[in-house]
Design brief:
One of its GO terms (biological process) is regulation of DNA-templated transcription. The protein is mainly α. It is built from 3 helices and no strands. It is elongated.
């Protein structure tokens, strides 16, 4: 993968913390920033996915679906009863 060099401006305190973290992890500052950015992007994607899932299940279900869910929960409880 092609690397692109970039420059960023951050507060001195944050820079000092990043420097210490990079040293303790035995990675370069650049690598630490890459790790942090990858983690941030993954976190954002997970939040978006969760929002989409919640939106999909936010619709009020009809009576038949509610009845089916109650029966499914009852059946599941019977199946796992005493396993824990």
């Amino acid at each position: 993968m092609k690397a692109i060099k970039t420059a960023i401006s951050i507060e001195k305190d944050l820079f000092d913390q990043a420097e210490k973290m990079a040293q303790s992890m035995k990675v370069s500052r650049s690598r630490l920033f890459v790790i942090a950015l990858q983690d941030f992007i993954a976190h954002q994607k997970n939040r978006e996915m969760l929002a989409q899932i919640n939106a999909a299940y936010a619709d009020d279900s009809d009576t038949a679906e509610q009845t089916l869910r109650r029966k499914s929960r009852r059946q599941h409880r019977r199946m796992v009863e005493g396993e824990w």
